[in-house]
Amino acid sequence: MKRRNFIKKASATGLGLVAVSSTIISCDETKSSEKKAFVSTSKTKTIKPLVIATWKTDLAVETAAKYLEQGSSALEAVEQGCRIEEANEKGQSVGKGGLPDRDGNVTLDACIMDEKGNYGAVLGVKNIKHVISVARKVMEDTPHVMLVGEGAEKFALEKGFKKENLLTEASKKAWEKWKEKSEYKPIINIENHDTIGMLAIDKKGNISGACTTSGLAYKMAGRVGDSPIIGGGLFVDNEVGGASATGLGEEVLKTVGSFLIVELMRQGKSPQEACEEAIGRIVNKPGKNFKDFQVGYIAVNKQGETGAYSIHEWFSYNLYKNKENKNIKSDFFNKA
Ligand code: ASP
């Protein structure tokens, strides 16, 4: 065996790649049939259409499912599903009504990925409710992948988005109460509602994902979490699957959580195993005190198998499959 061929074979084995076909060895040519050796060739029938989303997001998932059942793309479905939460003023962690930063400004983050691996994101946007749609416009109508702050707002206004005050009376009151002590600490969410991360498989079997949030309540001005960052709050690879995160974004970013989960699935782990390992990477860090913060993941693979796992109890997700939409309690790590 030529040396280069040996190296190729050895590294493929070292990565634990699955479904390696007999054509992988020749590295002098990169025919598309050889590239396919790196992805699952499982003949299992895909469960589709399917939607999975973080937290109790019944209406958002129902909306996405309706789009999919009517034949829309997974991309269209996740955008439309996320818009429901962005418009829901009662939800204080997404879109209008989101809790502000410590200066009283509501700033939104969002990103979207399609089945071709395209990605668009907006970070720290004020005055625009449907940031998920702005993220899609960044992906489709600009040569860039991320727009931030004023530039993102200017772009949104040019694209015809409506300027509006995102701070509701309820969120203003909560911020004023918080200011009395100005204590900042991450909160373990037990209200069963937070950032929405959504993944969908359409009737053609294509996967897309979206994630939208107002970020951590009372964050420092300018703080951005995992939600709009590729590989952090969201990652999709149409040949493998997708993953999305919620919770303390700093911890998700430090472990590149969603990308990690997709890569683990590529290497043969089930979505559930991959989510559990990604949580493990956070909680097993030497000296890490995970008692005070929460992270939750959801994942789906190309066959429509799903997984979810969090550090603490109280994380749930909505799953639409076989024409049923259910809110399901996630398994979790900290059972002490
Ligand atoms: N992950 C989001 C962030 O860190 C917040 C959340 O999911 O609650 O901005």
UniProtKB/TrEMBL annotation:
Active site: 195 (nucleophile)
A single MF term (Gene Ontology): hydrolase activity, acting on carbon-nitrogen (but not peptide) bonds, in linear amides
Coiled-coil stretches: none
PROSITE patterns membership: PROKAR_LIPOPROTEIN
Marked site (Cleavage) residue numbers: 194-195
InterPro entries hit by this protein: Ntn_hydrolases_N, Peptidase_T2
Pfam families linked to this entry: Asparaginase_2
Binding site for substrate: 223-226, 246-249
One cellular component term from this protein's GO annotations in UniProt: cytoplasm
PANTHER family membership: L-ASPARAGINASE, N(4)-(BETA-N-ACETYLGLUCOSAMINYL)-L-ASPARAGINASE
Name of protein: Glycosylasparaginase
